Structures are given as C-alpha cells and as structure tokens.
Amino acid sequence: MTKTKSLLEVLQSTTAYFANHEIENPRLNAEQLLAHALRLSRMDLYLEFERNLAENELGPLRDLVKRRGQGEPLQHLLGTVEFCGHTFAIDRRALVPRPETEELVELLQSTIENGKSKIIDVGTGSGVIALSLAAKFPEAEIYGVDISEDALSLARENAAQLRLSERVRFQKIDLLENLSERFELIVANLPYISVQERHLLAREVLHDPEVALFGGPSGDELVRKLIEQAPAHLEPGGLLALEIGLGQAEGLSDFLRQKNYHDIELKKDYSGISRFLLARYG
Asked: Residue 1: what pLDDT?
C-alpha cells in the first residue's frame, strides 16, 4: 500500500528538490506549481496543509516539478505571467516578460501627456507593453508590430482575453519598414543580447525564442537600426523609448546624439542598472 503524503510534505520535498537543482526562490516556485496543479490559490495551500494528496493529484505535479528542475521557465509551466496588474498567456512563442519591462511601462504611463496619443510597440512579442498601455489609455491609438507570426498569434490571444482586440492593431513587420504612419510614441524592448553572451544566460532564458533574445554580434544592432528608422515615423517632438542591455547606455546615447535626437534621458531600473533610454526628435 502506497503511503500518502500531506500537502505540506509534498511542498517541503518539492522545495528541497528545487534547491538541489539550483532553482531561484525554490519555495515560491514550489508553492506556485503546487497551487497550479491543484487549482488552488497559494493562500488556500496554507489552509489545506494537512490534506493528504491522492495519486491522481500527484501525477501531474511530478511532471511539472521535473520540467522546472530541468530549467523550463515557471511561466511556461503555469501558462501565464502577471504584468502591470493583468494576467497574460505566455508560452514558447514569445519572450517571457521581465520585471524591468513593467518599469518601462510605468515610466511611459507617467510620460504620456495626451491620452489620445498614437503609439507603436516595436517587437511587441506577447503584446504586454501595447496591451498594458491600451488598458491604461482607452482613447490612444495603438499598434503592435513584430517579425514573428508566432509571437503575434500569442499577442492576439492576449488581446482577446483582455477584450482589447479592437484597440490594438497587430501587424507582422520588420521594425518600422513599409510603415507610412507617424506616432507620438515609439516604444521598443528589442533583442539586445550579444550572441557571444549565450553561455552567460540562465537555463530559463534559453527557453525563450532566439529571435527575441539575440540582437547580433554586438547585441545592439537592432536597437541602432530602429534609432535610424524612427525619425521618419515620429511626430515633431515625438518620443522614442527603449529598453537596452547592460553596458549599452553610453554607446547608444552617443548614437542618438549623432542622429540629431534631443532631450536624451537615461533611466535606471530598480536594480540600479542603466536600462531605459528616452529621446525626442524634431
């Protein structure tokens, strides 16, 4: 006869397993996976610690725990990610949104003066930036563009889930090529990792699509290309807002000056890293 295990015992053994497999925040990961497998909230877990789990409850959990231990991102296993107060679907089709990108959206929300602005999110991925701005500014005209049809299909699913399909126009475009419109705001969290830095990336990050990670040999090639394209698509005094990689701030700031941008601002994320570049043109 198989000995049953209480919910608390399973939580403790899962936490220990994750710690042994060098998963960051092992207890939090264990709680979230267990709550997901049992269709409970994390608070409910604490209320049911003494409950014994049946084999049909443990089976699905074992698979999730094994995959997480092998480095599969928690968000892929849960199928969702929280971003700016909304729940988005996420999977292998697009980059898992990072907390610093939430900081970029918060920064933009305090920067946008006209709620009727025309905005484009370049490299939209799962659509989190475009859709978060659409939810905040119901009168804004918002576009989301990406080179990946897979990412765009996920973005459209998220738009439908949030009932924002009529508000954001998603299109397959390489950066701003073949667009005739002009915008008050161009925002982009483009791939900015150098291909030479692949070996430095966490196991979880390598589950993201390569097209969403690597910007080229130096890492900032796509960002520089967008900086060159943006003036033709910005209204006079329009804002270009970029999330950039570690060590890229000085070079990209100089490049913006060379391309005649003004009011160039460099902002740090909550970790103190120079992460966001804002600049105006015209």
From this structure: 42
DSSP annotation of 46: H
**Domain spans of the chain, in order of start:** 5-70, 81-281
pTM of the model: 0.88
Longest dimension (CA), the chain: 76
- Model confidence pLDDT, tens digit, residues 107-131: 999 888 778 899 999 999 999 999 9
Q: How far is CA 29 from the centre of its chain?
A: 18
Rounded CA gap, 272 and 111, in Å? 20
Distance, CA of 220 to CA of 117 (rounded, Å) = 28
Contacts of 92 (CB under 8 A, 6+ apart): 76, 207, 208, 209
Residue 129 contacts residue 195 (beta carbons within 8 Å): no
Considering the chain, what is the average pLDDT of its residues?
A: 90
Q: CA–CA separation, 87 vs 65, rounded Å?
A: 22
* Other beta carbons less than 10 A from residue 139's beta carbon: 9
Domain 81-281 sits in CATH at: 3.40.50.150
Q: How far is it, in rounded angstroms, from Cα 243 to Cα 72?
A: 25
pLDDT tens, position by position, 143-188: 999 999 999 999 999 999 999 999 999 999 999 998 999 999 999 9
Calpha distance 101→187 (Å, rounded):
11
- Strands 80-83, 141-146: pairing is unpaired
Domain 5-70 has CATH 1.10.8.10: yes
As a whole number of angstroms, the distance between CA 57 and CA 215 comes to 43
What's 253-282 look like in SS3? HHHHHHCCCEEEEEEECCCCCEEEEEEEEC
